[in-house]
Amino acid sequence: MTVRARNEKSRQLQLRLKRLQARASTVGADDRAQLCALLDDIQTLRDLLMRECAQLDEEINRAMFRATAITAYGRGVQAVRAMRRGH
């Protein structure tokens, strides 16, 4: 997913959360149907956020592995150059 697409998705999730907060502040404690619907919407949003977190974790792990590989490659190249120079 591109950075722009991820940012748009994040904005949509934030907007959805704000709407749920606004809805929660208007629901009466005695309105069981509204409370059940609100809880269902909150659970749905929570699931989406957890999926997004898992995807971000995967991307972070891939980036760390790449950085480690690049660092190891760089060290190997430096060692070869040092051996060629006779150090």
Give structural notes.
Keywords: Coiled coil. The structure is a single chain. By secondary structure, this protein is mainly α. It has a domain at 3-62. Helices cover 90% and strands 0% of the residues. It is built from 2 helices and no strands. The radius of gyration is 24 Å and the shape is rod-shaped. 0% of the residues are buried. The model has no long low-confidence stretch (mean pLDDT 92).
Concise overview:
Residues 3-59 form a coiled coil. This protein has 87 residues and is an all-alpha fold.
Alpha-beta content class: mainly alpha
General form? rod-shaped
Strand content: under 5%
Rounded to the nearest angstrom, the radius of gyration is 24 Å
Average pLDDT metric: 92
Low-confidence stretches: none
Key terms:
mainly alpha; 0% strand; single chain; 87 residues; 2 helices; rod-shaped
List the topology elements:
Blueprint: H1 3-26, H2 32-85
Helix pairs in contact: 1-2
